[in-house]
Amino acid sequence: MKKMFTLAAALVAVLTLNAVTTKKYGFVIDANPWNYETTAKSTTVLSGEITVSATSQWGEYKLSDKAIDMSLYKGYKVVYAAYNPGTPKDGKQGMQLKMAGTPETLNAYKDLPEDATEVTGDFKGTEGSITTFTLQAKTADASINIKSVALIKHDGTEEEIHYGGVAWGCKQTGGTVLISPAPMPCEITYTGQWGSLKLASTDGKTATFAKGSGEVQAFKILFSEPTTIDMCVEADNDSKGIAWFNIPVGSTEFRFTIDETTVPEDVVNIYIKASKADAVYPSTVKFASIESVITSPTGVDGLKALKKPERKTAYNVAGQQVGKSYKGLVIVDGKKYVRK
């Protein structure tokens, strides 16, 4: 015998949705540009968690990338961990904060306690500026993990700062490099073949792509005037070019796409280069804007209810229509069933 069953739960369909983001780009300008010239500037800063290891006694690491104005800030806070004060030498051991300023009355030192994970303090004086704010090793084998460095304003609020890098006698690992690219519009004068400029987004990162991510990165480059030389977009892995997109002479707009089909592996950087040896150099290119629209799969992102299947009409053996509570022999779609 067969039994009839009713579907009790509604059916659902799984929807796969995509996330769409837009990024704007500028150029990373090299300290010593090769085969290009420009008056535009970009800057690079380091922040986040770092490890500083001394290689010489009195080695120093710059905790700030700029002078500290006493009219704006009254003190500092340094958060740290994994502190190794090193081997004592000449009665000296550990690390200290070194502050030197203008006027010299701002000069001061502050030891980092071994039994703590944070040190705070006030700068000496309220006028002038701290021109040097460093972490200084008293021994050649001291090391420390710096979690963060912040300046304390006169109203008590804190502002995390960027590191200035190695001064001398130490090494640094870790940290997050953030780039402030040369903004658009931007004029670049190419002076020879393969003069190249690296792209960086306004969120401080270079242009990258992860193979297997399913992303589609649709780029658009706009020029203020038609281009006068052959150029190309080059996508690089960590050591060489892996994909190229040619920009024809006379372009005012150029589009290209980075996705699973256009690049063979992960992309670490994207460059815009002058590509012909016999082009007329120097030649100025006026970039108006560079942006990308990035589409990323997000997986299951929603559920949609489906229409519940309609109930089939049932009849008894006399041909009369019966309801769902009817017990006994019923006929549905020409087939006989027994309801109990």
Work out the radius of gyration.
33 Å
Succession of helices and strands: EEEEEEEEEEEEEEEEEEEEEEEEEE
Q: Which segments are poorly predicted (pLDDT under 50) over 5 or more consecutive residues?
A: 1-14
**Based on the structure given, which CATH architecture of the largest domain is correct?**
Sandwich
Topology:
Blueprint lengths: L11 E17 L7 E2 L5 E12 L5 E3 L5 E2 L3 E12 L10 E8 L5 E4 L6 E5 L6 E9 L5 E11 L4 E3 L4 E4 L1 E11 L5 E5 L5 E6 L14 E8 L7 E6 L4 E7 L5 E6 L10 E6 L8 E23 L8 E2 L5 E2 L5 E5 L2 E5 L1
3D structure, described in words:
This is Lipocalin-like domain-containing protein. Residues 1-19 form the signal peptide. The chain has 340 residues and is mainly β. The protein has 3 domains: 19-42 and 181-296, Jelly Rolls (Sandwich), CATH 2.60.120; 45-179, Jelly Rolls (Sandwich), CATH 2.60.120; 312-339, no CATH class. It contains no helices and 26 strands. The protein has strands at 12-28, 36-37, 43-54, 60-62, 68-69, 73-84, 95-102, 108-111, 118-122, 129-137, 143-153, 158-160, 165-168, 170-180, 186-190, 196-201, 216-223, 231-236, 241-247, 253-258, 269-274, 283-305, 314-315, 321-322, 328-332, 335-339. Strands 1, 2, 15, 16, 17, 18, 19, 20, 21 and 22 form a 10-stranded antiparallel β-sheet that branches. Strands 3, 6, 9, 11, 12 and 14 form a 6-stranded antiparallel β-sheet that branches. The radius of gyration is 33 Å and the shape is flat.
